[in-house]
């Protein structure tokens, strides 16, 4: 069969694409994608269908699909703002919208083009979770030194590579985003051509041995800035600076992206959300670290998993949420751990490369006192995503419960360096406080615990540590006041609860903690 559209001719039998009379050489899978879209031009084609038909159901990254879509558009001259031929239907998939004539056995038939509008009775096929797409433009070298191009390009490339590990977003391939290098282009134009929801852009300016890097995250639909930061560094070690800046930018962007997606999702009712939107709504509650919010988050996660039972990310967060619920004393340990364990194992089975899956499993192993397994799970989560601040902090907590306070302190402070102002930074201060308590540095432990409860007033772990540290520091009034706040945040707190529920590996650490709480007046 032959298809005729926009001065192009596509022969599916000969697998040839012509522009006018000129043969256009196209990579086979790009051609397969184009053929499938044209043959199914009466509807939206979702990601899962493309994977099944073009890649024979294999494992394919979102980046690969995006780069092939970009190549298909380029092959038929559809790279302009209007997307007159291949249109991205936000969060749904792709649709070929051009006017097409078909020829079979010499008989031609004209097909009226699809004109998308709000009243179309056609229902698009939906993917389970349409993750947002993000494009990283090449950072601009503002140093006036062409030799510094390698540094600015290196920053952009490293950010692309690091973001690709998050698995919560589709990252546009370098080969696509770097086509704009050296061009002054409008963000909306770039986003529409690449199918991106968000764009990261930045600049590098070097003066002597100093470098200033700026970066900003932009909502492509509105052009508004979601986040921006400036970093000033000495270039004593170029590669170390490049790694440090990449780490800082990626760690800062992830929670900002979740927050932006939550803002979008809040415009819809829970019944109309897809699994990804339910996940980001759940995370916004998970971050608040209260029993009420945690329960709401769990309900949203269960709805996401009902849509997609193999949604590893949602399963991993659900496991972590139930583990947190038990650790804070908000629920029965055995009940919550059973649910968390089931979710964590399901998350790993669904996607063994998902950091949240291994993070959730690490939380479960810690509460069940499988300490070596817990450390191994957190380490694997961090290998999969080195910028995962929460996993870094909980790795520190597991180290602390194993008695390794110095390593625990380093892990907690790395989490704070990754996300100093993130929504869960109170937990990171709490882990750092516990490490200092174990080292008998009670004044420092008190200071860190105060910061934790100032950030999250209902954070039980912070109140426990402030109470225990103040008691050991001989500050009876501070300890009494802290104990009062602890009982408010965790009404069921008691020496028996601490002894039975908190996962101390060493008896000496358990006795140290219990002695401190007894001094404060807990019975």
Question: How are the elements arranged and paired?
Answer:
Blueprint: E1 2-5, E2 8-11, E3 16-19, E4 22-24, H1 28-39, H2 47-54, H3 62-75, E5 86-89, E6 93-96, E7 100-104, E8 107-111, E9 133-136, E10 140-141, H4 149-164, E11 170-171, H5 174-177, H6 187-194, E12 198-207, E13 210-219, E14 225-234, H7 238-265, H8 275-286, H9 291-307, H10 312-327, H11 333-350, H12 355-367, H13 371-384, H14 389-401, H15 405-418, H16 425-438, H17 442-455, H18 460-472, H19 476-489, H20 495-501, H21 507-520
Parallel strand pairs: 9-11, 9-12, 10-12
Antiparallel strand pairs: 1-2, 1-7, 2-3, 3-4, 5-6, 7-8, 12-13, 13-14
Helix pairs in contact: 1-3, 4-7, 7-8, 8-9, 8-10, 9-10, 10-11, 10-12, 11-12, 12-13, 12-14, 13-14, 14-15, 14-16, 15-16, 16-17, 16-18, 17-18, 18-19, 18-21
CATH architecture call of the largest domain: Alpha Horseshoe
Q: What's the assembly state of these chains?
A: single chain
Strand order of the largest sheet: 4-3-2-1-7-8
The largest sheet, given as strand count, sense and whether it forms a barrel, is: 6 strands, antiparallel
CATH class designation of the largest domain:
Mainly Alpha
Mean model confidence by pLDDT: 86
Structural class: alpha+beta
Structure in a nutshell:
By secondary structure, this protein is of the alpha+beta class.
Question: How is this structure best described in words?
Answer:
The protein has 523 residues and is an alpha+beta fold. The protein has four domains: 2-111, Winged helix-like DNA-binding domain superfamily/Winged helix DNA-binding domain (Arc Repressor Mutant, subunit A, Orthogonal Bundle); 133-249, ABC-type transport auxiliary lipoprotein component (Rossmann fold, 3-Layer(aba) Sandwich); 268-386, Serine Threonine Protein Phosphatase 5, Tetratricopeptide repeat, CATH 1.25.40; 413-523, Serine Threonine Protein Phosphatase 5, Tetratricopeptide repeat (Alpha Horseshoe), CATH 1.25.40. The chain is 54% helix and 14% strand. The chain has 21 helices and 14 strands. The strands form three sheets. A six-stranded antiparallel sheet has the order 4-3-2-1-7-8, with helices on one face. Strands 9, 10, 11, 12, 13 and 14 form a six-stranded mixed sheet that branches. Strand 7 and strand 8 form a beta hairpin. Helix 1 (28-39) crosses helix 3 (62-75) and helix 18 runs antiparallel to helix 19 (476-489).
């Amino acid at each position: 069969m032959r298809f005729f559209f926009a001065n192009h001719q596509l022969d599916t039998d000969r697998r040839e694409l012509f522009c006018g009379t000129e043969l256009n050489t196209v990579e086979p899978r790009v051609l397969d994608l184009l053929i499938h879209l044209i043959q199914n031009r009466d509807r939206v084609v979702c990601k899962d269908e493309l994977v099944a038909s073009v890649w024979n159901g294999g494992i394919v990254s979102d980046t690969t699909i995006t780069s092939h879509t970009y190549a298909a558009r380029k092959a038929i001259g559809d790279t302009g703002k209007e997307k007159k031929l291949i249109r991205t239907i936000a969060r749904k998939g792709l649709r070929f919208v051009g006017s097409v004539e078909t020829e079979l056995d010499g008989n031609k038939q004209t097909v009226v083009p699809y004109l998308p509008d709000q009243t179309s009775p056609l229902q698009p096929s939906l993917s389970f979770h349409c993750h947002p797409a993000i494009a990283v433009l090449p950072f601009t070298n503002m140093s006036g030194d062409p030799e510094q191009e390698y540094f600015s390009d290196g920053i952009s490339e490293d950010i692309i590579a690091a973001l690709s590990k998050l698995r919560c977003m589709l990252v546009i391939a370098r080969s696509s985003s770097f086509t704009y290098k050296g061009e002054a282009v409008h963000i909306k134009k770039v986003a529409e051509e690449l199918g991106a929801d968000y764009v990261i852009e930045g600049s590098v300016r070097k003066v002597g041995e100093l470098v200033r890097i700026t970066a900003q995250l932009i909502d492509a639909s509105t052009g508004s800035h979601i986040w921006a930061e400036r970093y000033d560094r000495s270039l004593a070690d170029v590669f170390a600076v490049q790694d440090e800046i990449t780490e800082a930018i990626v760690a800062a962007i992830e929670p900002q992206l979740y927050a932006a997606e939550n803002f979008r999702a809040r415009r819809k009712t829970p019944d109309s959300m897809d699994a990804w939107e339910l996940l980001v709504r759940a995370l916004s509650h998970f971050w608040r670290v209260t029993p009420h919010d945690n329960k709401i988050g769990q309900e949203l996660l269960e709805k996401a998993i009902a849509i997609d039972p193999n949604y590893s990310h949602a399963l991993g967060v659900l496991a972590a949420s139930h583990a947190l619920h038990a650790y804070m004393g908000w629920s029965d340990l055995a009940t919550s751990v059973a649910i968390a364990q089931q979710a964590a194992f399901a998350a790993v089975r669904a996607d063994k490369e998902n950091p949240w899956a291994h993070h959730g499993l690490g939380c479960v192993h810690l509460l069940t006192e499988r300490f070596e397994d817990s450390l191994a799970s957190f380490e694997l989560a961090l290998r999969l995503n080195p910028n995962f601040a929460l996993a870094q902090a909980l790795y520190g907590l597991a180290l602390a419960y194993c008695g390794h306070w110095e390593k625990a302190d380093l892990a907690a402070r790395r989490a704070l360096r990754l996300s100093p102002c993130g929504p869960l930074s109170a937990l990171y201060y709490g882990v750092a406080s516990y490490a200092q308590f174990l080292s008998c540095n009670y004044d420092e432990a008190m200071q860190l615990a105060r910061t934790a409860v100032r950030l999250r007033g209902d954070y039980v772990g912070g109140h426990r540590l402030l109470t225990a540290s103040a008691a050991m520091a001989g500050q009876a009034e501070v300890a009494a006041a802290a104990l009062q706040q602890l009982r408010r945040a965790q009404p069921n707190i008691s020496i028996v609860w601490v002894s039975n529920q908190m996962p101390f590996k060493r008896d000496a650490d358990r006795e140290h903690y219990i002695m401190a709480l007894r001094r404060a007046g807990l019975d």
